[in-house]
Amino acid sequence: MNRLKASKAISKVIILLTDGVNNMGSLDPLSGAEIGKLYGIRIYTIGVGTTGMAPYPVQTPFGIQLQNMEVKIDEALLREVSRLTDGKYFRATNMAKLRQIYQEIDKLEKSKIDVTEFRKKRMNTWY
Q1: 20 to 30 A from 106, CA-CA: which of 32, 86, 91, 126?
Q2: CA 83, CA 43: separation in Å to the nearest integer?
Q3: pLDDT given for residue 78 in this prediction
Q4: Quick one: 16 exposed, middle or buried, by C-beta within 10 A (0-12, 13-18, 19+)?
Q5: Is the pTM here over 0.90, yes or no?
Q6: pLDDT reported for residue 2
Q7: Where are the beta strands (DSSP E) in 61-105?
Q8: Which residues does 80 contact at the CB level (< 8 Å), separation at least 6?
Q9: pLDDT for 18-40, tens place per residue?
Q10: Alpha-carbon distance 10 to 123, whole Å?
Q11: What is the predicted pLDDT for the residue at 34?
């Protein structure tokens, strides 16, 4: 948001690709969404992954090893973050769906701008 808040862009967008589980940072997601709204930043959230168990890299005394961990998707939180910023929530369970979501976001963020074009014409005169 720090990079976008001073931008003069017509459309300020963040695409948040996550499971939605807040496990990092000192700012909770809803407060972050409120700040984004204040700066006119639209947040599209994409809940990624499937529910159930999935291999996850974990640091152990023997190096990084894969361990099966429960996958949780906090869809309610992701929907609320998008709603607060006039964005939209999407759910991606595979790469094809993720590509489709990015195409849809691309369509949503198309904006028309008026362009005024000036050209300098030079007339040749023959005497």
Answers
A1: 32
A2: 9
A3: 95
A4: buried
A5: no
A6: 82
A7: 63-71, 89-92
A8: 30, 33
A9: 887 776 667 888 999 999 999 99
A10: 38
A11: 94
